[in-house]
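Obj.: predict assembly geometry.
Materials: sequence records (below).
Method: joint structure prediction, all chains together.
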Amino acid sequence: MLDINFIRENLDKVKKSVEARKANVDLEKLLSLDNERKNLIQQVDDLRAKRNEAAKARDKNQGTRIKDELQNQEKKLSAVQKDWEHLMLQVPNVIMDEVPIGDVSKNKVIRKNGEPPKFSFKPKDHMELGKLLDIIDFERGVKVAGFRGYFLKQAGARLQWAVLNFAFDHLTQKGFQGIVPPVINRSFALEGGGQFPWGQEDTYKVGEDEYLVGTSEIPLMALHADETFDMKDLPKKYVGVSPCFRTEIGSYGKDTKGLYRVHEFYKVEQVVLCEAQEQESLGFFEELQENSEEILDMLGLPYQVVVMSSEEMGKKQALQYDIETWMSGRAGYGETHSNSICLDFQTRRLKIKYRDSDGQIKFCHALNNTAIASPRILIPLLENNQLADGSVKIPEVLQKYTGFSEIKPK
RNA sequence: GGAGAGGUCGCAUAGUGGCCUAGUGCGGCGGUCUUGAAAACCGCUGUCUCGCAAGGGACCGUGAGUUCGAAUCUCACCCUCUCCGCCA
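Observations (raw structure tokens):
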């Protein structure tokens, strides 16, 4: 959420951002509602002041008269307030200068790292390999779980825990606090994290007010909702690991085969809360980016870093880098990581604050980035490391977690 | 799931319709004293919101309601604790 004062004072900037994202928000209506709201607040406050006086004087007649008028205006105010809040939640974050304006074609590759492997044979995709090695079972997965269901078996199951553990350990060693968060979250957490209203249909609803989160970023952000930090307690650096759930309703016909787009997966996620200084946040953005790239480097996976365009990035982000990892089965790059700097967009919704050195209370800045998500990351791990007979070599850093260095056809 | 108790300003506690502009203690900040510190004493010390300001208003778990007036009464909900039951 943006500050209404910021919207008023930087209307052009906000408008540009809304247009660049092709977002659907009526800013004019918001501003007129805001005026109405301010007037009503003034009126209601005046009436309350009068009511308080009348009550003090035990003036029943005066009191009754004011009471009626007050109830009237309060009703109006709460209706306007509700519409106002509804619209405020729909205003996307302001994009940073670095964001390319336009659709997916404007996504900009800024860096490539590692060479895609060359094969002397036609590489198999992970579905074939999964079957051949007997480590993925899609047929029974669909039988049991429905569309996009899967079982990971034997070495496949071990491999998934290995990557997750590897990434989790790696970040814990770097000073990130490891967290296993709840994944059934109340609506305030999803709304606060900026998942709602935009991603509502991609979210499973499991209770009156409870939802399955699509990323541990949601509970990790909500963790400190309504808290005010001392400066000395910042930054907060967390690494969460959790299952993630996504309906993928918006991607109905897309990536229908394989492990690429599934309804449930596991993810190790980095989250940072820091002071509200753009330079400092950008420093953490870099740091989170390096961490993810380092993990891919250690796994020996080639990748490219992409700056997401204004229409492709999420509504809560001010700037978003994705990492696309080389997947030999498709002979191309596929998204595996997403790095986001959200400034105070989420923390304002969640009321996560800190007391600055000047005594002022400010909203923290927040960032999040994927460390590793599986089973999607198994795609390049299997496809890029295959041998002619379908065997798959395990990257060295994972071997202490898997306990084997190779998966062989049965 | 059943039965009780409870949610008040960072923490602890007082407060059962108007003297609550929420008291007190602890903690924190500043000062006096001291070579320095402790102790003692004095003062200050919540958040949000409207306003250029002066100054208003809101907030006692959340939301409705009763009343001229609600932390206090009514209803619903959420959460915590204790005991019992069930259970990985």
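Conclusions so far: Residues 104-407 of chain A form a domain with the BirA Bifunctional Protein; domain 2 fold (CATH 3.30.930.10).
To do: check interface contacts against the pulldown list.
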